[in-house]
Amino acid sequence: MTTTNIHLHTYFRSSCSARLRIALRLKSLPYTSIPINLLKDEQHDPKNTALNPSATVPTLILTSTNNNPATTTTTIIPQSLAALEYLEEVYPDKHPLLPPLSDPEARATVRTLANIIACDVQPVTNLRILKRVAPLGMDRAEWSRGLVEEGLQAYEEIAVKSAGAFSVGDRVTLADVCLLPAVWGAERVGVDVQGQYPTVWRVKEGLEGLEAVREAHWRNQGDTPEEFRVGF
């Protein structure tokens, strides 16, 4: 019998980390969180960069053992989309996050929406970029707000055609797993998500009603400072 232990290097406000927290909770896969404080530059610690050469979070680590310790294997995945796809391939029957293979169009829509967030929005609004634009005189919140609004507008225009209860149909998919942390970030920088993006808002409200999502919320993590837990 093979036993797999899962560890997740995470930061409470990291949207990429939240994607994996949500997916692991939805798939009912127990995991141990290892906090990496980005504001203290712990992502650059050699212990972290040995696992994640990009000096980022999250890093997903799966250690599998059976009755023979010599056959222990460790899988390290330092990119959130790759980790999400891995979990989907290894645990396809635990809350599938992609539509069935028989519906390639829906699978493409899910991946399109996920990539709008993961490729168009998150990379240009993350902490590493914000640190670079601030010395140029750019207000960090203003910078993020404009880019997030562009991305959510694109997401809205596609999702309004594909959404059921969630972004693509009536089941939570990889698109939703990527969307929700981006919406949390959008709210923090003052984007009027409810007023500008009604489909995104409706999906967000439905997702936040799920226990797995509440457990993965950035206000509800072991490394969340006490002042951010108020009212959660």
From TrEMBL:
- Key words of the record: Isomerase
Which NCBIfam families does the record cross-reference, listed alphabetically? maiA
> Is Isomerase tagged as a keyword?
yes
* Gene Ontology, cellular component aspect: mitochondrion
GST N-terminal domain sequence ranges: 4-95
The yes or no answer to whether the keyword Aminoacyl-tRNA synthetase is present is: no
Tell me which residues make up the GST C-terminal domain: 103-226
Write out the similarity annotation.
Answer: Belongs to the GST superfamily. Zeta family.
Report a single Gene Ontology molecular function: maleylacetoacetate isomerase activity
- Supply the source organism for this entry: Aspergillus ellipticus CBS 707.79
Q: Give the protein name, as stated in the record.
A: Maleylacetoacetate isomerase
Q: In which pathway does it act?
A: Amino-acid degradation
Q: Which Pfam families match?
A: GST_C_2, GST_N_2
- SUPFAM superfamilies in the record, alphabetically? GST C-terminal domain-like, Thioredoxin-like
Which biological process, per GO, is one annotated for this protein? glutathione metabolic process
